[in-house]
Amino acid sequence: MAEDGSAAWLRYASIPNPAQYSFLPSRIAVRGNSPLEQTAARELQQGLSSMLGRPFSVVRYDPALASITLAPVTSKPASSASIGSHEPAGVQADSFRIVRTSAGKSTSLTIQGETPRAELYAVFHLLEEVGAEKPIPAVDRQAPSAPIRWVDEWDNLNGTIERGYASRSIFFDNGHVRQDLTRTGEYAHLLASIGINGCNINNVNADLETLSTEHLHEFARIADAFRPWGVKLALSIDLSSPQTVGGLSTFDPKDPAVIAWWQKKVDEIYTLIPNFAGFTVKADSEGRVGPSKYGRTPADAANVLARALRPYGGVVLYRGFVYDNHLDWHNLKADRARAGVDNFAYLDGKFEPNVIIQIKEGPIDFQTREPVSPLFAALRHTSVAIETQTTQEYTGQQRHMVWLPSMWKWALDTDMRAEGADGRARITTVKSIVEGKAFGQPVGGYVSVVNVGLEPNWLHHPMAMANLYGFGKLSWNPGQPLSAIIDTWTRLTWGNDPKVDSTIDAMQLASWQNYESYTGPNGMGTLTNILGYHFGPGIESAERNGWGQWFRGEKDGIGMDRTTATGTGYIGQYPPQLAAQYESLATCPDDLLLFFHHMPYDYLLHSGKTLVQSIYDAHYAGARAVAEYVPQWQSLQGLVDDQRYQQVLALFTYQAGHALVWRDAIDNWFRGISGIDDAGGRLGHDPNRITAEEMKTGGYRTVDVDPWETASGGKAVVCDGPTACTLSATLDKPAGRYDIAVQYFDTWGGVSKYTLLLNGQSIASWAADATLPPAQADPNLDGQDSTRFTVRSISLKPGDLLELSGTPAPPVDTARPQRTMSRELAPVDYIEIGPDGPITPQ
Ligand code: GCV
Fold first, then answer.
1. For a tag site, which of 47, 140, 216, 837 has the least CB within 10 Å?
2. pLDDT-based confidence at 81, cuts 50/70/90?
3. Which pairs count as long-range contacts for 609-615, CB under 8 Å and 24+ apart, including other chains?
4. Which residues pair with 725 in a beta bridge?
5. Among the atoms of ligand 1, which is closest to the Cα of residue 163?
């Protein structure tokens, strides 16, 4: 059966052994009368009928007959975390229980929720148990860990998405909300199924007109599409709105006219969207204006909004991502990582109770590994939410498979060792902080930037939806084991075949560490081109500019000295016990070392390897591990549907090739700066490689590649001619079968064409027409667009003539004029001839 991935984990595919659920009665009865309960009953009916292959029906409740009954809880416990008067808040609102009872031969299930939305969550829970062939316990009580479980979309009103990698916005087009909101409803369906209760629909870099009356009327249509699934709409707003929308002369949060304007605006919003969730605020950050303009604090600004929202139960998610992006890199004490605590800790206790500080998991920006933000432990009288990024901005942009819940759980489980009133350090995990358990601030939770797009499968890579699923699951219960989360996702998404499940689970569970291994080592950050679009390697882009993502790679060593003794003092922002652990080389973990310390390249790690050798080895191991995804995936052919099989195969093949680009760039760069060779003798010795510039050429010209480490020998060849150029080499390989890989650059500047010939006969032809890297034209030859094409199992013998013919893109591509900004000149880096076998030559 062909599948496009649009149903994600809600496929409701028939399960192999439906008889195990034969006890489930086919009658579904609803005792409440809200639309949400009706939605829940219909979902249950459809899901069970489809998975179990027998009809279920929604009927009138009859106590004499066995049924699955949805009913509200009769007596409500007092809410511990009420933030407004609008509705019960806190985790109770979403808690439910499912109770199984038997009378004679018949079994009934009673689904009880604190609210209709909780009944809906219970229904999804039950459907998931059936879909993944799990037992249904006699009594199952569930409550989410925190009330805020939101996704943030960074969609722009013109239909583009900041850091979106799966086509355009499902909400907006051309300055307006789309007429057809079918995808919006389907998205809310997915969100509800994993317990997400809020969705912020627009970019935190908010359009200045977001709060105009005209736009609000349109947003109300999105809220309507969300409502059947219990998902509330939130908006990102710009703090200058009183000026830009209201026409006031100021947006000073202490100005009475400004305060009145916000109140009136909030009143207007609630007349249009009665269940509006609240505002997200990015201010005084990356060019956004903020309260600092008037000498006011984030608390001054957040509280004005919060007071206006509070009577309605709305909240303000004020982002802790406030930093100066014009830092002086000459100043060894300057440190962007300090910004969160420096800008917010002194305000602890000064925020209204419905203000939540939304803190990115690490102090920089969603890197492949960072320590957790010290701000989590610095705010003890303020609710906080952790902000993660499901959209893979720095982690492969949904072209690499990286299962991020592994990273999030690592962050959530980090014990910050905060001191209690008695001055003694105690277990203070990040999850206990956002849950409100550690400091008793119960209105916090979890936010993830998701950026789904119009592509049928939402995020482009079929495996990437496991990140959204895992986010929902962790925010419901951060204590849940990762293996259970991924196994359920795999079963629901790909079916219950044991081989399929064990293969996919294992790949996903290893994928974050694999990605980390071939990208940013030892806490250095992702080492991507941070001045470009954060996809491929671009190591030194982080250095010597105002963005503050420095790692200070010098001849003597590498890493930011953030110690209190000699560095920026950042480590001192953690509670003392954790600070001491990071400050001392004896206890600082290897995988965060360079985040905290400036170290010589031959420093001996706890692992027993020198720093630089560990980097070399990790990059070889990581690239090899992801190359293995290809044969592992191929072993599932026929066990999963062909449409998604082919899609994933193409992506894994791409990832295997791009991991080599990463590996080589980083390892060569470290070899260059450290002057230390790879003890394994691999670096700089590529006997299977023929660089393009050393081949005999007809028409190709050699060019420098910048940064040098993203091409073999720092050079590539390009063909300026109107027709094809050629490269050729006479081979001296012993007779046998080989894979032949061509490393070229797919720059998005039109479509070049390549043909590989052996002794004058074509053995493969392809076009450089990938949408990789996504969404943005990149005219440069570099690590973002270095791409590999592999022809498998070719018979070679000594003396064979291998030829590559490259035809540059036509000067103007009329079909896609945006692609001809800079013409693609059939660029080539090298050809690699490796042994035949399942794995691309290493
Ligand atoms: C929406 C990073 C991203 C920006 C993003 C910003 C933020 O800097 O690259 O695209 O802006 O974070 O989280 O506000």
1. 837
2. very low
3. 610/676, 611/522, 611/558, 612/670, 612/671, 612/674, 612/676, 613/676, 613/678, 613/679, 614/521, 614/522, 614/590, 615/521, 615/522, 615/666, 615/667, 615/670
4. 806
5. 10
Nearest in space to 287 (alpha carbons), one of 393, 170, 162, 394:
162
Q: Is the CB of 449 under 6 A from ligand 1?
A: no
* 728, two tokens: 């050729």
* Of 188-192, 378-382, 735-739, the least confident: 735-739
**What is the amino acid identity at position 456?**
P
Band the pLDDT of 83: cuts 50, 70, 90.
very low
Q: What pLDDT is stored for residue 712 in this prediction?
A: 95
- CA 318 to CA 385: how far, in whole Å? 10
Average pLDDT over residues 448-467: 97
**H, E, C per residue of 519-530:** CCCCCCCCCECC
Q: Whose CA is nearest to atom 2 of ligand 1?
A: 365
pLDDT at 1 over 80: no
Find the 626 Cα to ligand 1 centroid distance in Å.
Answer: 28
- C-alpha 842/C-alpha 836 separation (Å) is 12
Tell me, what's the pLDDT at 835? 78
Share of the chain above pLDDT 70, in %: 95
According to the model, what pLDDT value does residue 779 have?
A: 79
Judge whether 186 and 453 are in contact, CB under 8 Å: no
Cα maximum dimension of the chain: 87
Distances in Å between the Cα of 603 and the Cα atoms of 539, 683, 768 are 21, 20, 43
pLDDT computed for residue 841 by the predictor = 45
Which pair of tokens denotes residue 498? 């044991």
User: Pairing mode, if any, of strands 68-72 and 106-113?
Assistant: parallel
**pLDDT for the residue numbered 74:** 67
Closest C-alpha to 439, from 452, 428, 454: 428
Ligand 1 atom nearest to 282, measured from its CA = 14
pLDDT 10s digits, 514-562: 999 999 999 999 999 999 889 999 999 999 999 999 999 999 999 999 9
- Cα-based distances in Å from 655 to 281, 301, 659, 667: 35, 44, 6, 18
* Cα–Cα distance for residue pair 808/826, rounded to 1 Å: 5
Pocket perturbation via mutation, ligand 1, pick of 162, 236, 282, 286 by most ligand atoms within 8 A of CB: 286
365 is catalytic: yes
> Quick one: tokens of 144?
């989410």
Omega prior to 835 cis, within 30 of 0: no
CA angle 652, 654, 656 (to 5 degrees): 70
SS3 434: helix
Q: Which helix (H) or strand (E) holds 99?
A: strand 96-103
Question: How far, CA to CA in Å, does 384 sit from each of 387, 431, 500?
Answer: 10, 11, 39
Q: What are 198's strand-pairing partners?
A: 150, 232
The position carrying tokens 């305000």 is: 347
Ligand 1 lined by 205 (C-beta under 6 Å) = yes
Token readout for 83 is 């933030």
Number of H helices, E strands in the chain: 19, 27
In this prediction, residue 606 carries a pLDDT of 97
For residue 673, give the DSSP letter.
H
Q: Clarify whether 393 is annotated catalytic.
A: yes
Residue 85 pLDDT exceeds 80: no
**Nearest atom of ligand 1 to the alpha carbon of 285:** 14
Residue 769 pLDDT exceeds 90: no
Interatomic CA distance for residues 547 and 515, integer angstroms: 24
pLDDT in tens, 220-276: 999 999 999 999 999 999 999 999 999 999 999 999 999 999 999 999 999 999 999
Q: Which of 151, 152, 163, 390 to mutate to test the pocket of ligand 1 (most atoms within 8 A of CB)?
A: 163
Handedness of CA 475, 477, 482, 484 (dihedral sign): negative
